[in-house]
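User: Can you help me understand a structure? I only have the sequence.
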Amino acid sequence: MNEQYPNLSWALIDNLYLKNVIFEEYIHNSRYLFYLNDLISELISYKCEGIQEKLKDVKTLKKFSSILSELEFALLIAKNKEIKELKLLPDDYLPSKSPDILFRDEVITSYVEVTRVNENPHITDIILSRLREILKSHPYRVDVSLNTELSIPRMKRIERHIQKDLVEKSLDMFEEIFKEKLTKNTFKTPSDVIDTESLTFTIERTDSGKGYPRFISSDYIEVPTDILCDYIKARLLDKAAKRNSFGDEHRKAHYIIALDCCEPSIDEIDINKLLYDRTEGIFLSETEMKNVSGVLFRGKWDKITFYPNPFCDAEINDPKF
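Assistant: Let's start by predicting it. Here is the structure, written out as tokens:
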């Protein structure tokens, strides 16, 4: 693995635990591992600092996904601005709360705070974790389809608990039927399907002899974007408030929130309305947003949009930015 993915291995040199987790998890997904390797390679070519330190304390794949967003935004910045310095910042960079990225050009120093909005992450994590355990030592890969109820993103805690219960009930049923089919050797070929109340499992035998979950797909539905935008608004305000803890010298740096939105029902039109709407746009209506020079948005399909904040504090407000 070190020889095949040398840059990724270099980045994880201080975190052998995470390195093993990543290579074990994606052993059948060389395309993704090559993507990670090339991402690190490009960051190195732009003289990005702090890569190894940023990754050294990451313990889970969920946290790694968040850090991956930071790496991708750092590369995006490097490719689109002439900068003299680019650095991924450790958690203790500032005495209180630290931003994620620093970059400098000839005139301006900027901090970037990255926040990631996943597509039903609590459901995905439960399914993947449970299936890895069930499929361990069994030569089958499993694709999972969510029903309509589980495909709707839920942001309230009680609603997420209801979805969690539905998922665990379906996983219990799958495990029981799967083990029965194993015992009796009654899997259909080339694929078999197990339907439960909330999830549909498609099972195929693997040539490698290893078992693993593969794809998780959602039903096609109309998602209530107002609920999602309220959730994104709360995330943006929370990140905007972070600048309040910066010392005077660091408050002079431009402060950008980079929003990595993996939820496909939210696009640049929704974000534009959330930020700029004449009566409710949060750049004007929410005091905390005066801390923010602009919002950098990446949608599900990798379209990038930057929204400058004309109402931010004067010291971080530059019309040319």
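Now, to help you interpret it: The radius of gyration is 22 Å. The chain has a mean pLDDT of 92. Let me know which part you'd like to focus on.
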